[in-house]
Design goal:
alpha/beta; Rossmann fold; EC 1.1.1.392
Amino acid sequence: MSTKTAIVTGGNSGLGFATAKKLCDNGIKTFIIGRSKEKTEEACREIGVNAIPVLFDLNDIAGIPAMIENITQNNSIDILVNNAGINLKKEFLEVTDEDFLSIIHTNLLSVFAVSKAVVKNMKENNGGNIVNISSMASQYGIPKVIAYSASKGAIESMTRAMAVELAPFGIRVNCVAPGFIKTKMSAKALDSDPERKNKVLGRTPMGILGEPSDIADAVFYFASNESKFTTGTILPVDGGNSIGF
């Protein structure tokens, strides 16, 4: 793995940061794509020499091919982690068309565009690994996150379709579906809603929130040769939440 190169979108915080750190700690040169200059560069300094900042707003769909081409001019990409995403908590009837489209644009269209650009490089180099990040919101109905749920459900369907189509080129595509993990995003959602937090923990058999490192470990498994006969799978990493009663 120490000779490989990776891209992690949204790698400057939360699950993306933990994933980028896991890859870098294992000697993998990792390009961390983030839109905040200060946040992205600070994350790379904290992670170490294997982390390389790429300042880019993934909402600029048209600019993605050129951004990836700049990276691949001198690097072949072995691993792509599509982690970047945003959430929106609103009552169904309060969600505007613009709200919905904004979530789909960031969480789905950018994943497609980044993957398409990276796959061109992977095909030229006879293989690679793509790991998408979905959510428990795609596994069952959660109120007040209609757009987020739709985007993550689409990510899981796209994972399976990509896996089948790209397998002949030696490219594996898998997906990690995090449960409720201790991040700033989840803290904001749960701490402001004690009833929701109690419900989350009550239906999680392990009775705790996960750590960002739990997601990073799952991503690393998919990105490594340990999973060489695995593609098109969705792995819940959720303390049993998705099957809890």
